[in-house]
């Protein structure tokens, strides 16, 4: 099987992040006497985690296309949509979900409603109910905090409801890396392996998934938007490559240009708005999407 250039690049990039973290960990041994690194900053099994990590401080913005990898200690309600068009093909997805972290382990529940149409052919209904859990397994923070990376794992199960758009169960395993450089820049990376179970034409289908979210956080002091606390422009890449059943090597890659705007609190709720313009980045994606809009409204509680 020949892998598309984008999938190879995504794999190599994520591998480079993991390798960088490992090299940095080795340097930390040499720098152990640096006064900026407190001896009690590391904790957990084999001291694999770091109290100073930006991951523990909710630094990373929630993506619009790529699956969320961040920590949600306060709990979060979210309402997302993705509407795409390609000629007569329309695809609309609406998601209501909740996230909550216990320690560093985050649980997520999502209930989608899907509407897909192509000329006179329409399919709609509740999609798979998604249940996922994620957990960081290694963190490294450089002496002065400029380089801050978290490596983690996640598992997601999609439970079918036997609607017109939900026939097959789904199981996905993922590796993620959340990287912070300096005070503003973030990169969230995700690699995953997805399998559909059950009958029908999609039963047994396997795909390799990958995603990247680039963000640059600007505080209200740096960009004083009315009613805003923080504004984060984002560029995202979300792709998948078929592994079997006639889809082997077929790649589909979408891009998104958008932002997250953290608004001022409303009592006990912290609202955040997200908006992105979605576009295809290869021929596989262009067959199904010519353009699209992704929106998100979340409330931390």
How would you name the oligomeric state of the polypeptide chains in this document? single chain
Q: Which secondary-structure class do the elements indicate?
A: mainly beta
What's the domain count? 1
Largest sheet: 12 strands, antiparallel, barrel
- For the record, give the distance between the C-alpha atoms at the N and C termini, rounded to a whole number: 47 Å
Label the overall shape: globular
Portion in helices: under 10%
Unreliable stretches, pLDDT < 50, 5 or more residues? 1-35
Instruction: Look up the CATH topology.
Output: Porin
Element pattern in H and E? HEEEEEEEEEEEEEEEHE
CATH superfamily: monomeric porin ompg
* Radius of gyration, taken over Cα atoms and rounded to an integer in Å: 20 Å
CATH class: Mainly Beta
Strand order of the largest sheet: 3-4-5-7-8-9-10-11-13-14-15-16
Number of DSSP helical runs? 2
CATH architecture label: Beta Barrel
Q: How do the strands and helices of this protein lay out in sequence?
A:
Blueprint: H1 5-30, E1 42-43, E2 49-50, E3 76-86, E4 89-102, E5 105-118, E6 121-126, E7 129-141, E8 147-159, E9 169-181, E10 185-197, E11 206-216, E12 218-219, E13 228-242, E14 251-263, E15 270-280, H2 283-286, E16 291-300
Antiparallel strand pairs: 1-2, 3-4, 3-16, 4-5, 5-6, 5-7, 7-8, 8-9, 9-10, 10-11, 11-13, 12-13, 13-14, 14-15, 15-16
Q: Could you characterize what this model shows?
A:
By secondary structure, this protein is mainly beta. The protein has one domain (5-34, 44-300): monomeric porin ompg (Porin). It contains two helices and 16 strands. The strands form two sheets. A twelve-stranded antiparallel β-barrel has the order 3-4-5-7-8-9-10-11-13-14-15-16. β4 and β5 (105-118) form a beta hairpin. The radius of gyration is 20 Å and the shape is globular.
């Amino acid at each position: 099987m020949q892998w598309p250039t984008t999938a190879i690049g995504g794999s190599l990039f994520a591998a480079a992040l993991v390798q960088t973290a490992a090299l940095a960990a080795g340097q930390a041994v040499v720098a152990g006497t640096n006064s900026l690194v407190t001896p009690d900053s590391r904790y957990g099994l084999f001291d694999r985690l770091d109290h100073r990590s930006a991951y523990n401080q909710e630094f990373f913005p929630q993506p619009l296309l790529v699956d969320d990898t961040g920590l949600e200690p306060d709990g979060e309600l979210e309402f997302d949509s993705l509407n795409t068009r390609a000629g007569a093909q329309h695809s609309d997805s609406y998601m209501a979900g909740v996230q909550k972290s216990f320690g560093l382990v985050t649980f997520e529940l999502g209930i989608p409603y899907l509407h897909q149409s192509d000329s006179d052919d329409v399919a709609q209904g509740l999609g798979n109910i998604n249940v996922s859990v994620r957990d960081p397994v290694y963190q490294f923070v450089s002496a002065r905090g400029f380089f801050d990376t978290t490596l983690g794992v996640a598992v997601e199960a999609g439970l079918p409801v036997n609607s017109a758009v939900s026939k097959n169960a789904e199981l996905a395993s993922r590796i993620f890396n959340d990287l912070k450089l300096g005070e503003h820049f973030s990169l969230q990376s995700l690699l995953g392996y997805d399998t559909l179970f059950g009958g029908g034409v999609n039963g047994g289908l396997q795909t390799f998934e990958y995603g990247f979210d680039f963000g640059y956080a600007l505080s209200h002091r740096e960009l004083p938007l009315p009613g805003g606390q923080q504004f984060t422009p984002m560029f995202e890449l979300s792709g998948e490559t078929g592994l079997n059943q006639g889809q082997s090597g077929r790649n589909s890659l979408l891009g998104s240009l958008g932002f997250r705007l953290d608004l001022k609190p409303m009592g006990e709720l912290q609202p955040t708005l997200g908006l992105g313009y979605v576009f295809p980045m290869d021929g596989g994606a262009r067959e199904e999407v010519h353009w699209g809009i992704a929106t998100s409204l979340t409330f931390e509680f």
